[in-house]
Specification:
Elements (H helix, E strand, L loop, with lengths): L1 H6 L5 H13 L4 H7 L8 H15 L6 H11 L6 H11 L6 H30 L4 H16 L10 H17 L12 H7 L7 E6 L5 H16 L2 E6 L4 H13 L3 H6 L4 H16 L2 E4 L6 H9 L4 E7 L15 H21 L3 E6 L20 H7 L2 E7 H4 L8 E9 L5 E8 L4 E4 H5 L5
Helix pairs in contact: 2-4, 2-6, 2-7, 4-5, 7-8, 11-12, 12-14, 15-16, 16-17
């Protein structure tokens, strides 16, 4: 029993002391340690207090050595009679700072083990208490473990000073970047300039009546994101099968007529384009899941397992079932869509990637003279409109009016935009390839 009490949580006193000793004898290695460790990574309170003091001094560019650290600890009230001898001991037991990265690795490893142990204890307690369904418990358990993998505690509050460092780093990256876009490119310059690309933790909603080209535009965006960023793009297709989606991707990437791909009535020249498109597509990391019964929680869990995730595309919102797989009817369906859209926004924030979700529109616009969609046309509207950072509508005048002057020209209407202006941009619709293009770049301005 005594042995059990003595064991405590995983930690290495020697590694903690070696990290602190290295920083005290060599001020140059302080910045390297600060990049990799936080105060919570130190298990022993005395070591944690010394690290916090050095971290504070580092932020204010003060010199770090045994004397200055002791003095600073006197000021902040963490100094005791044992502090000065302990600081001397730290410097004596660390002959050189050359191996500081090895010591840091051990400290981080032990901290990670403690976090896993705490999460496991919480999960066990939750199971023993009962009161929730197995599905909810599994979701909660995955979230706890995922928070550790992301390197942050699920519940901790973050001081502004820490966020400031992240913001400043981000601004520096943006100013040094050759691209003027803060986010991933949609592949359509006119849309990019309106919404500033696809940004981390954004929920983007693309809504239209059936047949307007929602899926085509989403696939164009997925292709562009995978091609330009080299990141993984996850596509959840609740409506179309994997084969249909990949056929569309080949049509769009190789500019092969979709009709000929579907019927197999192909020319010699088509095969060359198909081969090139297939070669390009195989180099991109696009993952497709066409299970029609997926919930938002399932999607979240699957995305967590992807290491280099850049974008999530969901086609489409109204086909999703809510977390417990419950089906809602009538007014309750509105509650279900509200739950789902909230979970998608949480998913975007958790995964730190843009989530592009497609949505159907109600028939309200077809009863009006001006059939351009409005926010109020979103089916089961309120919550989706509230949760989304950007809401875009697709509208083609020639869909309703055969004599329209704007033949094969689509309008992408940005109806809500948390990052900038609303308004519309015109795109070229190429129905034979189920693809969109920018008017000005590819075709000149003569038909605009």
């Amino acid at each position: 029993m005594d042995e059990l009490l003595m064991r405590g949580m995983p930690h290495s006193a020697e590694a903690e002391q070696a990290v602190l000793g290295s920083m005290l004898i060599d001020g140059d290695c302080v910045k390297d340690v600060m990049d990799q460790l936080q105060a919570e990574d130190f298990y022993l309170r005395q070591n944690r207090e010394i690290f916090e003091t050095i971290a504070h001094m580092f932020v204010y560019s003060q010199p770090v050595d045994g004397v200055t650290v002791a003095s600073e600890m006197e000021k902040n009230g963490t100094y005791t009679e044992a502090t000065r001898p302990y600081l001397l001991q730290l410097m004596e037991v660390t002959p050189t700072s050359a191996n500081v990265n090895e010591y840091v690795k051990i400290v981080r490893d032990k901290a990670l083990m403690r976090q896993v142990a705490t999460a496991a204890a919480n999960i066990t307690a939750m199971v023993q208490e009962g009161g929730a369904s197995a599905g909810d418990m599994l979701e909660s358990a995955e979230q706890k473990v995922y928070a550790i993998r992301r390197g942050r505690s699920g519940q901790s509050m973050v001081p502004v000073s820490q966020v400031l460092q992240d913001v400043m780093t981000r601004l520096e990256e943006l100013s040094n970047s050759e691209s003027s876009l803060p986010g991933l490119s949609t592949g359509l310059s006119a849309v990019d300039s309106k919404i500033n690309g696809l940004n981390k933790s954004d929920l983007l909603l693309l809504a239209a009546r059936p047949g307007m080209g929602k899926t085509s535009l989403a696939l164009n965006v997925a292709l562009s994101a995978a091609k330009t960023s080299g990141k993984t793009v996850a596509i959840f297709s609740l409506e179309m099968s994997r084969e249909q989606l990949v056929t569309r991707l080949i049509a769009s990437e190789g500019l092969v007529e979709n009709q000929r791909l579907t019927t197999g009535n192909l020319r010699e020249s088509d095969w060359q384009r198909i081969a090139e498109a297939a070669s390009n597509l195989s180099r991109m990391d696009i993952r497709i899941d066409d299970n029609p019964l997926l919930t938002a929680a399932d999607m979240n869990a699957k995305c967590r397992r992807l290491d280099n995730l850049g974008l999530v595309v969901i086609d489409y919102l109204q086909l999703m079932t809510s977390a417990g797989g419950k089906s809602y009817a009538g007014e309750n369906r509105q509650q279900a869509v509200s739950d789902i859209s909230r979970m998608l926004k949480i998913m975007a924030k958790e995964l730190q990637v843009p989530v592009l979700c497609l949505s159907q529109l109600s028939r309200a616009n077809e009863k009006r003279d001006n059939k351009r969609p409005m926010l109020s046309d979103l089916r089961e509207s309120g919550a989706i409109e509230q949760d989304a950072d950007i809401v875009m509508f697709l509208y083609r005048d020639d869909y309703y009016n055969e004599d329209s002057e704007k033949h094969n020209i689509a309008e992408c209407i940005v109806a809500k935009n948390r990052h900038g202006e609303t308004g519309k941009v015109e795109l070229r619709w190429m129905p034979e390839y189920t693809a969109f293009g920018t008017l000005e770049n590819r075709y000149g301005d003569d038909e605009e």
